[in-house]
Fold this sequence. Notes:
It is a single chain. The chain has a single domain, classed as F0F1 ATP synthase delta/epsilon subunit, N-terminal (ATP Synthase, domain 1). It has no helices and eight strands. It has strands at residues 4-9, 14-20, 22-27, 30-34, 41-53, 59-72, 75-79, 83-85. Strands 1, 2, 3, 4, 5, 6, 7 and 8 form an eight-stranded mixed β-sheet that branches. It starts with a strand and ends in an 8-residue tail after the last strand.
Amino acid sequence: MSALEVTFVTADRTVWTGQAAQVVVPAIDGSMGILPQMQPTLAILGTGAVRIIDQDGHVEALDVEGGFVSVDADVVTIGVDDATPAESATSRF
């Protein structure tokens, strides 16, 4: 199974980097799921949780307010001003 190469950064640090099975972001027009082999996409983020689901099903969830996500050839780049641990994070998706 193919994986996504994810880089999640804020203005001053790298929040998360590595391989993931799925990423879910709060795009301004609704929640957007990202899976391997997705068409190239660039989206503006709204307010909500970014969820990164690794190959074992573990979920890393962080709240964001704005930013962007870029997807191209299974490379996902998420850039935001700040990210804080999500209040309703779960260990399994």
